[in-house]
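Preliminary data (for renewal application), glycinamide ribonucleotide complex.
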Amino acid sequence: MKFTAPLKSDSIKIMLLGSGELGKEVVIEAQRLGIETIAVDSYNNAPAQLVANKSYTINMKNKNEVLDVIRREKPTYILPEVEAINIQALFDAEAEGFHVIPNADAVNKTMNRKNIREFAAVELGLPTSKYEFVTTLEALKDASNNIGFPCVIKPVMSSSGHGQSIAKSPDDLEKSWELAKEARGDASELIVEEFITFDYEITLLTVRNEKETVFCEPIGHIQQDGDYIFSWQPMNMSEVAKAKSQEIAKKITDGLGGRGLFGVELFVKGDDVYFSEVSPRPHDTGMVTMITQSASEFALHVRAVLGLPLDYIDYGAGASAAYKASGDSFNPIIDIFDSSFTKESIIRVFGKPQSHVGRRMAVALAYDKESSDIALQKAKEIIGNFADN
Ligand SMILES: Nc1ncnc2c1ncn2[C@@H]1O[C@H](COP(=O)(O)OP(=O)(O)OP(=O)(O)O)[C@@H](O)[C@H]1O
Ligand SMILES: NCC(=O)N[C@@H]1O[C@H](COP(=O)([O-])[O-])[C@@H](O)[C@H]1O
Ligand SMILES: [Mg+2]
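Predicted structure:
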C-alpha cells in the first residue's frame, strides 16, 4: 500500500474527550510520533491529563463547554474516550469542519444502546440477543416477561457495568429498576436483553484507516458485575466462529465508518456468534495488547486516525488482570511488590487522583510465548499481591 502524503507530526493536534487509563496510553502513543495532545475530562488530574501537553477540566455533558474547548484549541482530530459527552457538541464541531474520530454519527450510535442495537440488529441484520426498550417499571415487567428470565437490564447509556443487573425472576425487577439509576449516562430508558448462555465472550479489535481493515487476534475476557477483570489474547476459537466474528466486525465497523480502532464485543456459543456492542475507540480488555503486539491497540488507534499503515507483529500469548480499589481515598496508594516485576510482566498504574471501592486503578500484564492460560495465571498471581490504602 502506498501513502502519498508524508506525516507532518508537528502540525497535528489530538484532543481527547475523556482522559482515563485508555486515553493515557493513546496520548503516550501520539506523543511518540511528535503529536501535540490535549486531554479533557470532567475531573482534574485524570490519567491522560497527567501526560498530555495540555489539559482542560470541563462539564463534558455541557454542549457549550465542549464546543468552547474545541474552538479554542482547534484540534486536528477529536477522540471521544468516554460515552458521557454532549453529542450535539460533536455534531456541531463536525459541521464546523472539525474531524471527530471515527465520526459524530458513529459516536452517537455507539454511546446509546438503543441506537447501536437497532443499527446492528435491524439495519445490518446482525445476530443479537432478543431485546426490548422500556421507560417505566410496568413496561419493564412486560418486556422481561416477553423475553424470559434471567434477563439483563441496562440503562441505554452507561459503561463498565454501571446500572446494569441480571433479573433472575420477576421479584428482582424493582431492584433492577432502582439500580439502573446508578448509570452515569442516561437511565431514562432501559434495554432488557435475553441472557445469552455463551461459551465465552470476546473483544475483536478491528482497525480501519479507510484504506484497509485489520483484525487483531481475538481477546477472551471475564466480566464481573458488568466490568472486565481478566482478559487474554489470543482466545482459542473454532475457525468458523472466528470467521463469523470477523464478518460481523467488518459489517458493523464499515457501517459506522471513519477511521480508528473499534472494540467489537461478541458472545460465542458453539459456532454461533452474537453481536453485543462496540466501542469506537480502544477497549479496556484490549490493554493486553501492550504486551502481546508490537503495536498496541493504542498505537494502532493513533495510526488509524492518521491514516497510516496498520502492520504489526504478534509476539505470542498474553493476559491482563485489572486491579480495583478496595477502599475510598483522596490519596490512593497502590502497593506493588518487587516480585510483580518479571521479564514477562508489565505493570501500569493509572494515577487516578481518587479511589472508590471497585474503581479500576491499575493493570498487570503477563506474557507467555505459547499459552494464554499460563499468561492468565501469571497475571492473576501478580494482581493478587497488589494492595491499596
Ligand atoms: N445479553 C447478555 N447475555 C449474557 N451476558 C451479558 C449480556 N449482556 C451483557 N452481558 C455481560 O455483561 C458484560 C457487560 O455488558 P455490556 O458490555 O453491555 O456493558 P457495558 O457497561 O457497556 O460494559 P463496557 O463499557 O465495560 O463494555 C458483558 O461483557 C457480558 O459479560
Ligand atoms: N469500559 C470503558 C472503560 O474502561 N473506559 C476507561 O475507563 C475510564 C473511566 O474510568 P473511571 O470510571 O475510573 O473514571 C475512561 O476514561 C476510559 O479510559
Ligand atoms: Mg461492554
